[in-house]
Amino acid sequence: MPIVIVVGAQWGDEGKGKLVDVLTERADFVARYQGGHNAGHTVVIKDEKFVLHLIPSGVLHKNTVCVIGNGVVVEPRALLEEMEGLRRKGIGISDNLRISRSAHLIMPYHLALDLANEQALGKKCIGTTGRGIGPTYIDKMARCGIRVGDLLNPGLFREKLALNVKKINLLMKNLYQSRGFSAGRIFDEYMEYGGKLRKHIADTDVILNEAAAAGKNILLEGAQGTLLDIDHGTYPYVTSSNAVAGGACTGVGMGPTRISRVLGIVKAYTTRVGSGPFPTEILDAVGEDIRARGGEFGATTGRPRRCGWLDTVVLRHAVMINGLSGVAMTKLDILDGLKKIKICTAYKHGGKTYHHFPKDIEVLEKCTPVYEEMDGWTASTLGIRQFSKLPLKARAYIRRIEELIGVRADFISTGRKRDELITIRKQF
Ligand code: IMP
């Protein structure tokens, strides 16, 4: 009966996919609430690796209905390819996938605009995934976006497309000296996608609220993370949607009074892809070592992730903004064997100590982290399934983090596989 939000507490890539997959065992519905195919969730089942971008990782469970909520932006070709990839691996996609009629479509010109914007920014670029996410949300807010439901209304789709292409072509030609787009070609392509997706398109807000009223277990899955949120992240180096827990309500159409729990996913250290401030980034061999051990390369773009120490200023911000009821710590095993482990407890800048996450990007760029150093542990934590079996110093690390952020760990992930997990408090 609970409704649980799963949200990234750092800059994304915290390992939400694994936790969502595990929690889905008891969930009747899993719904994505924002972002698009910029996300990449990796799940390993019996040594087989699944990388999901748009479809919630819940799809790997037979009896769970997966929902792509209205807050998501959908690139239909990428979605169809993902569905096909899953089918090839024996995962059936039929009534178990529902796509909101109100979700916005990523169009070919959004991709071109994303790349052109980044190029124009030069050194100041955001480091986007180049998937057209930002321009699609711009059109949504500018009230000229084309929605998934429009695929089922060719007349309206053609009308909206013609207006958009006229405007985009002017922009592409004059600002970026680039060739324009053919509305006719896009129309034909998207109508074909519409035909293939038709049976999945639905009023997902009604489906989810009826399920909640019927006492079903529902998981609301965020993509990216708190620090990439458009309002509460390191603006402008963020994604273009509300990745925080509040975004779950608007992104699927459920009221806040329905939510039972908010689980924050926290990597045992910190990573970030793309540009922007990262106070605890490790720029020496230790950072490289963590990247190599943790396989810290983007699941969507393959870019090497920047690595750093755990930052509890970031985490306290995540606890506050999301109202976290608990956290799941992932990738603890990656820290095995490190002699010393640092935890950032505050920032210093201009004679001032910051315990709350600063909003000023210049402070974030120039601040010095205040560290506490703890002893590492030598024994392997890989695959441990009971808290009491963890090395003493690993337990001390977790307990200290809980103390610093004021929230308990509900789960600790000790490996990539489903069962490499310590469960302290079940969510359903
Ligand atoms: P966009 O979402 O492609 O516009 O990219 C904006 C910023 O968010 C860039 O710094 C990306 O690297 C970052 N980003 C987007 N999606 C993810 C993700 O799934 N994991 C981590 N970073 C992401």
Topology:
Layout: E1 3-8, H1 16-24, E2 29-32, E3 41-45, E4 48-52, E5 65-68, E6 73-74, H2 76-88, E7 97-100, E8 104-105, H3 108-121, H4 133-141, H5 154-176, H6 183-197, E9 201-202, H7 204-213, E10 218-221, H8 246-252, E11 261-267, E12 270-272, H9 285-294, E13 306-308, E14 310-311, H10 312-322, E15 326-330, E16 340-349, E17 352-354, H11 361-366, E18 368-375, H12 392-405, E19 409-413, E20 421-423
Parallel strand pairs: 1-10, 1-11, 2-5, 2-10, 5-7, 6-8, 7-9, 11-15, 14-16, 15-19
Antiparallel strand pairs: 3-4, 12-13, 16-17, 16-18, 19-20
Helix pairs in contact: 3-4, 5-6
Inosinic acid is lined by residues 12-13, 38-40, 126-129, 131, 133-134, 223-224, 228, 237, 239-240, 273-274.
Explain the overall architecture:
The strands form five sheets. The chain has a ten-stranded mixed β-sheet, sandwiched between helices. Helix 3 (108-121) crosses helix 4 (133-141) and helix 5 crosses helix 6. It is built from twelve helices and 20 strands. It folds into three domains: 3-103 and 200-262, 3-Layer(aba) Sandwich (Adenylosuccinate Synthetase, Chain A, domain 1), CATH 3.40.440; 104-197, Adenylosuccinate Synthetase, subunit A, domain 2 (Orthogonal Bundle), CATH 1.10.300.10; 265-423, Adenylosuccinate Synthetase, Chain A, domain 3. It is α/β, with parallel strands linked by helices and 428 residues long. Helices cover 33% and strands 20% of the residues. The protein binds inosinic acid. Inosinic acid binds at residues 12-13, 38-40, 126-129, 131, 133-134, 223-224, 228, 237, 239-240, 273-274.
